[in-house]
Amino acid sequence: MANKGLKDGQIIKRLATEHEPCVLVVWDNKLVHGHRQELEHFGLTIAILDQQAQPEALTDEAYYRDVIHRHAHRFIVQERGTAWKYAQRSLRIRML
Fold first, then answer.
1. Over the stretch 57-81, which tens digit does the pLDDT of each residue have?
2. Contact by Cβ (8 Å): 93, 76
3. What pTM was estimated for this model as a whole?
4. Sheet holding 23-26, edge to edge
5. Which residue stretches of the chain have pLDDT < 70?
6. Measured on CA atoms in the order 69, 85, 45, 30, is the torsion positive or negative?
7. CA–CA separation, 41 and 35 (whole Å)
8. In the Cβ-directed half-sphere of 51, how many Cα atoms lie within 13 Å?
């Protein structure tokens, strides 16, 4: 999905109406709090990559690629409408 120039709320609505079921993988750790009502309304499933757990030795891209690689199998079985935070070496944390 091309989302360049779209605001978060527009992306959430488009995913929920055109691409459900899906899992939105986000790097923005504030998205869940800033768009809680929309996410709950649409029941969108979110996998948050925990920026706070990023080792200093890794670039952003190296870190998020590693976290996605380690947890992709968990993203796809995550309960619909939930938001979980994932990190490189820790268990996931439920956010919604």
1. 999 999 999 999 999 999 999 999 9
2. no
3. 0.86
4. 23-26, 45-49, 83-86, 93-94
5. 1-3, 91-92, 96
6. negative
7. 10
8. 8
Residue 25 CB coordination number (10 Å): 17
Residue 62 CA to its chain's centroid (Å): 17
E strands, 1-96, where?
23-26, 45-49, 83-86, 93-94
Q: Where are the domains of the chain?
A: 22-94
State both tokens at 4.
């360049």
CA distances from 44 to 25, 56, 63, 66 (A): 11, 31, 24, 23
